[in-house]
Amino acid sequence: MTTPPPAPRHVERLLAFTNSVDNEEQTDDLTTPSELSAWLEEHELTGARGVRATTADLTLARSLRDAIRDSMRAHHDGLHDVKELDRVAADLPLRLAHHPDGTPGLEPVDTGIRGALALMLVAVADAAADDSWRRLKICAFDECQWAFYDHSKNRSRTWCEWGCGNKVKTRNYRARRRATTG
Q: 9-181 belongs to which CATH class?
């Protein structure tokens, strides 16, 4: 079995952001403004060291993360409200700017924490542009909910790894057996 190529940087950035909450471990890397500041700096999003988040920034970051996660869930079932991402994005304005090579691209209007969060929207736009956006999914196993990049040719993966799929299939099998024997 060959190892799939690494996902583009903007995809890795989106996965890291959405996976800053771990459903299985019951952990969240973004519970305080200082944790948000550290996370954004660690992922090279702030552009400067020592940028400090506020409580309002933390609330916005968590809303953005949840909205991106819901949009990724919609890639499975189409049932989740993708309009929430539109609503949150309104608080993180972007502008068109030319890169040093002369190509146009989006960049945050704001600097600091809000600018760093707006870079997550740039990553969404980049993923949509290179057709990797629909490959970003949330594991369908309720206990997991890990964000992953679907490398499958037909984009049909449902679980982040075979173990989650195996757990779901085993539970469904046992439930069917109980129903027929009980």
A: mainly alpha
